[in-house]
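Input.
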Amino acid sequence: MNDYIVKRAEKLKMDFEQKAIEIITGVKHPAIHHTLHDLGIIRSYEIKDSNIEILMALPAPNIPLLNMLIQSFKQPLEEMEAKVNVQTVVMTQEELQKFLTMEQSAWKGL
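Output.
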């Protein structure tokens, strides 16, 4: 009986982590045909139990879509009862160049 409980708890944890990763890496940018993760906007993430730390790299400080971008992954994660902490930094020149290239080739507009 105890093994069953442990295995069930491990499966639930794996299911939670898998679903969280799908959300984090799958959210599309509203104006560019790419995910935030592919664009480098979501630079990294760490999942520890139900706590999720996300580091966002922005092409410029104070971008107008920032709250919309954060809510696009934060809301579904919080619906899974995750505690989400988001930190933001500005992209490096290399990251920005990659972002601008991808943006130019996949722009769809709002």
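The longest strand covers residues 51-58.
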